[in-house]
Amino acid sequence: MHWRERAECLRVDPDLFFPISNGGLTLLQIDKAKAVCGRCPVVEQCLDWAVRTGQADGIWGGLTEGERRALRQGGTTSAPGPTSPS
User: Fold this and answer.
1) From CA 75, how far away is CA 39, in angstroms rounded?
2) Which of 2, 56, 62, 66 is 20 to 30 Å apart from 19, CA to CA?
3) DSSP 16
4) Is the pLDDT of residue 68 over 70?
5) How confident is the model over 11-46, as pLDDT tens digits?
6) Are the C-beta atoms of residues 50 and 61 closer than 8 Å to each other?
7) Measuring CA to CA, how many Å separate 23 from each of 26, 44, 84?
8) Helix or strand or coil: residue 38?
């Protein structure tokens, strides 16, 4: 079985993982997407694939585009999780 077949995101609307901005209500959307990633059994494989293949859009492996970019550039990122305090 391929890791993608076990992904938690297969059970939700794919649009959740492709927010159209970085502020306002979009932060709630990002938090919801990251919550799905947070309970996904293949989140590490997803993130590895996204970084290796240069995915520029969307939330993959629990990280946003900017978080993945920082990871690729050797910066640090937070562990997958909410983007703002509750």
Assistant:
1) 25
2) 2
3) G
4) yes
5) 999 999 999 876 788 999 999 999 999 999 999 999
6) yes
7) 5, 26, 11
8) helix
Which amino acid type is present at position 70? A
pLDDT of residue 59: 97
Closest by alpha carbon to 49, among 36, 63, 39, 38?
A: 63
Question: Does 49 score more than 60 pLDDT?
Answer: yes
Residue 48: name the closest of 57, 37, 39, 60 by CA. Answer: 60
Q: Judge whether residue 79 has pLDDT over 60.
A: no
The structure tokens 């937070």 sit at 78
CA 79 to chain CA mean position, Å: 11
CB 9 within 8 Å of CB 17: yes
Give, in order, the Cα–Cα distances in Å from 67 to each of 10, 70, 72, 75. Answer: 22, 5, 9, 9
Write down the H helix ranges in the chain: 25-38, 43-53, 65-72
